[in-house]
Design brief:
mainly beta; 4-stranded antiparallel sheet; 2 helices; 8 strands
């Protein structure tokens, strides 16, 4: 069983949220989220994109040479980077689009005019990721 990422009594009180926009063809190479002063606190990452898109998320090790584990993510999935995972390289090298199984007729009905086409294309091809984290060292609260 994995060790807890925070000691008993510690509280996770996020202080910051980073919103990342990704356009068509954008990927996210292997990296560390290393700007926080206290790596003992988790980072929550929430993904938003259309039902027609999904992503491959790679979680590697503490070195770029470590072989990563691949995970399949859909819109609304939350990745919690905590404990030892906070020190691991990770990234999103691939986005998949499946027009065949698209559930976007409700959106298409909202964009009927010719000048609405750029907005519909934007929605079809864009994704947003929100990272929520603690950026400062927090004092421990014991219950």
């Amino acid at each position: 069983m994995a060790e807890p990422s925070m000691r008993p009594g510690d509280q996770f009180k996020p202080e910051a949220a980073i919103v990342n926009y990704f356009g068509p063809g954008d990927t996210l190479g292997g990296h560390l989220d290393d700007m926080e002063k206290d790596w003992s606190k988790p980072i929550a990452s929430i993904r938003f994109f259309l039902d027609i898109m999904s992503a491959i998320f790679l979680l590697g090790g503490k070195s770029r040479e470590d072989k990563p584990i691949a995970m399949f993510l859909r819109s609304g999935d939350i990745v919690l980077m905590a404990g030892e995972a906070r020190e691991c390289f990770h990234g999103v090298p691939r986005i998949f689009t499946c027009e065949q199984h698209a559930e976007i007729t409700h959106l298409e009905s909202q964009f009927k005019r010719d000048d609405d086409l750029p907005f519909l294309n934007y929605i079809r091809t864009s994704r947003i990721n929100i990272n929520i984290s603690c950026i400062m060292i927090q004092s421990t609260t014991w219950n």
